[in-house]
């Protein structure tokens, strides 16, 4: 079968490899779509994702497909089921798994990171990580369940309430998901920060945000109860803290470089009684994410900009395409 194999830093090759056989507790999935995201960009450039990727490896942790077969111990799935996969596999044995924060697992592994993922015609996944896709959710949309779940986990770390005014800094794909999820969780208003008027106008229509701010033209006011940094640069992280009112919550979601730091006025953190939180991957968020997609409270079709082929992935990770990319895996 055909697979896009990461052989080294910035080095992909399309190869004909053997179709895997599912182990007793695994599902074999015919891949239909795989999303491309910042984690893939990091792995392509030799940086770690949620876990280190050791070439040769097949990436693709945002996936959807159809069940081809199952291992002998698997119940609840049959050939032809439409599915998506939570890529993150927790050991269930370490301290962090035992105290209820499995995303911190000492032995974290992941489909499309430490084991072959969806940028190939078929792949296996533990049955515990496989989820059926609602009938009204297209498989192209279902391939975005993982990024939806990451944003949703971030929102679940916050205390949301109808009085709150929220700010999302960054109008990449995850930022646009945060806007929709915060609206779904009932905050009073959501403001989106970007850098291009025409793009922001389109995104306001697509996400239903209440207001937009062009950071190149306007100063962000300090009036928000929730602020989300969905960029990961020092200047956006500082802006997220500075845009708060008393008692606000700040979510650091955007991924900075491993050695990156930002400045913060610690007196203001004390004086405003701010809560500053990080958000890492997506534990226990797939059921709600699929519900958001099924009910239409999160709409991804208007914000997925490119449908690519396997031989276009390297171009996507090199910046040739703007906006969210998903790869159609042809049988």
Automatic annotation (TrEMBL):
Pfam families referenced in this protein's UniProt entry, alphabetically: ADH_N, ADH_zinc_N
PROSITE patterns referenced in this protein's UniProt entry, alphabetically: ADH_ZINC
CDD domains assigned to the protein according to its UniProt record, in alphabetical order: threonine_DH_like (cd08234)
Enoyl reductase (ER) domain boundaries: 8-327
Requisite cofactors: Zn(2+)
Sorted UniProt keywords: Metal-binding, Oxidoreductase, Zinc
GO molecular function: oxidoreductase activity; zinc ion binding
SMART domains to which the protein is assigned, alphabetical: PKS_ER (SM00829)
Record keyword Ribonucleoprotein present: no
Family listed: Belongs to the zinc-containing alcohol dehydrogenase family.
Protein's name in the database: Alcohol dehydrogenase
Organism of provenance: Acetilactobacillus jinshanensis
């Amino acid at each position: 079968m055909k697979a896009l194999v990461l052989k080294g830093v910035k080095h992909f090759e399309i190869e004909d490899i053997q179709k895997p056989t599912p182990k007793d507790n695994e599902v074999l999935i015919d891949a239909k779509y795989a999303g491309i995201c910042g984690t893939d960009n990091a792995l392509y450039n030799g940086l770690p994702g949620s876990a280190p990727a050791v070439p040769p490896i097949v990436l693709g942790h945002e996936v959807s497909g159809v069940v081809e077969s199952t291992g002998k111990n698997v119940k609840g799935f049959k050939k032809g089921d439409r599915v998506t996969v939570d890529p993150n596999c927790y050991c269930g044995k370490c301290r962090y798994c035992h105290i209820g924060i499995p995303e911190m697992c000492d032995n974290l592994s992941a489909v499309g990171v430490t084991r072959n993922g969806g940028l190939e015609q078929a792949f296996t996944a533990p049955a515990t990580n496989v989820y059926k896709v609602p009938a009204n959710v297209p498989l192209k949309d279902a391939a975005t369940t993982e990024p939806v779940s990451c944003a949703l986990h971030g929102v679940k770390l916050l205390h949301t309430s109808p009085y709150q005014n929220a700010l999302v800094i960054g109008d990449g794909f995850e930022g646009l998901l945060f806007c929709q999820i915060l609206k779904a969780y009932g905050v009073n208003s959501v403001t989106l920060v970007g850098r291009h008027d025409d793009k922001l106008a389109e995104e306001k229509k697509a996400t239903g945000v209440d207001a937009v701010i062009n950071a190149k033209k306007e100063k962000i006011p300090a009036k928000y109860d929730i602020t989300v940094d969905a960029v990961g640069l020092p200047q956006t992280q500082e802006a997220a803290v500075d845009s708060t009112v008393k008692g606000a919550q700040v979510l650091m979601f955007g991924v900075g470089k491993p050695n990156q730091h930002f400045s913060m006025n610690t007196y203001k953190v004390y004086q405003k009684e701010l809560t500053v939180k990080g958000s890492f991957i997506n534990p226990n968020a797939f059921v709600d994410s699929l519900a958001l997609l099924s009910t239409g409270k999160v709409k991804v079709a208007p914000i997925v900009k490119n449908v690519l082929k396997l031989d276009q992935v390297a171009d996507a990770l090199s910046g040739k395409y703007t906006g969210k990319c998903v790869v159609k895996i042809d049988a």
